[in-house]
Structure prediction request, 77 residues.
Amino acid sequence: MKLYVSPRAPSPRRVLMFLVEKGITGIDLVHIDLNAHEHKREAYLAKSPLAKVPALELDDGRVLTETRAICTYLEGL
Ligand SMILES: N[C@@H](CCC(=O)N[C@@H](CS)C(=O)NCC(=O)O)C(=O)O
Prediction:
């Protein structure tokens, strides 16, 4: 799984804190530079059409794009 984050933004930070609290490891972090508008580039929009971080890309290619949905999914695993 890949987690797209911008560490200084609050929503991705919530997920990063959740990972630490739960002791979850093994997720690749991909840093998206909001200042460089990386989240508005075609490659990222293909994963997250609303151009927001965080996004969790599952191994089968599906992508979760809401903080609470990501945390709930990880909790379920
Ligand atoms: N409803 C989304 C909101 C995510 C969100 O607003 N992310 C902000 C960073 S905290 C973002 O990507 N902002 C970039 C933009 O709006 O251009 C969630 O809870 O995950």
